[in-house]
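Before the break, one more example. Copy the sequence into your notebook; we will annotate it together after we see the structure.
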Amino acid sequence: MQQRPLALLALFVVNLIYGVNYVVAKGLMPEVIGPSGFILLRAIGALSLFWLVRVFRPERIPSPSKTPSCACAHIRTRSPTRPAWPFITSASPVRI
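Here is what the structure looks like once it is written out:
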């Protein structure tokens, strides 16, 4: 299959998922489920889709390229004194 039709199909599927998500969120959110619960459901759905894709298209990541990523993640989670997003406090227009 050529690249352009495949890209257009992927864009259509993404827009379809976004549209369905919007309609479902508008119908469920204030009364049936809270925003945090809906975000959790979206995350679980995305995780399920990624796992499903991985079953049909396994991809191996070589071990040497995993090491820097794991080291960066470990360093980032081990520095609680630095905020993760320092620019939000200075640039945010919301005052509490």
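The chain has a mean pLDDT of 76. The chain has one domain: 3-79. Try to locate both features in your own notes.
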